[in-house]
Sequence to fold (265 residues):
Amino acid sequence: MKSQKIYFAGNLKFLRERKKMSQEALAERLSLTRSKLSALENGQTRAPQPEDLVACSEFFGISIDSLLKIDLATLGELKLRELEAGNDVYMTGSRVRVLAITVNNENRENIEYVPVKAKAGYRSGYNDPQYIAELPKFNIPNLPHGSTYRIFPTTGDSMQPIPEGSDIVAKYVEDWTSLKPDSPCIVILKGEQDFVFKQVTVGKGKILLKSYNDLYVPYEVEAGEVLEIWKLVKYLTDEIPEKTSGMRQLLEMVRDIKSSLEDKK
Fold:
């Protein structure tokens, strides 16, 4: 397997010079010594510390993935300005790839179901047409046309009051920055976790993941650690919800009114 070329050293020097900063000035802003910054720029540090990568990403407003994987000096001025404005491909989700889908006999997209036993393989097969073709397929009425949908089962109680074991019908999100704060989504992550169901808020280079259940602490992930995001459309469950108390109903009404006012703004 061909190794990925790393452009961090050249990118760091390029971005510093683009801002017309001296090594002393940038080192001070990044809380580094000048000698350490010089070593980073010259590629003498083969494995930069994670905290140094984070500091550079936050200062320049460009994701760690782009700092590592893209030769920024080869990009045009318009693209560079887009990156610096936060329109990073690793932040919007618009990577150069094609979403794998399947269609029925009427040439309409199927809705694939990702069962629990298939979770482990989804991370490696999510953009493999053959893998997607082998998933169970369903048709759900009254879904808006023009979008791609998939069904994911939930595990755990982090998103209560949505019951554990519910099936989340979700729409593929192409541009992550279009999501409103705290949008309930299925998030496909790299690493050990295959996907999680959380409230998603997209920030600058990072994504905040929050549970409905307050017992679970919110946490952030790097945008480059996210493979896909699917926004909740509806959920399917065989549980009958418990009767809501009068106070709970009042609180929910206030929350709905507040949300409606914020949308109008």
In short: The chain has ten helices and nine strands. Residues 149 and 187 are 14 Å apart (CA to CA). The beta strands are 111-113, 137-138, 149-153, 167-172, 183-189, 195-202, 206-210, 219-222, 226-236.
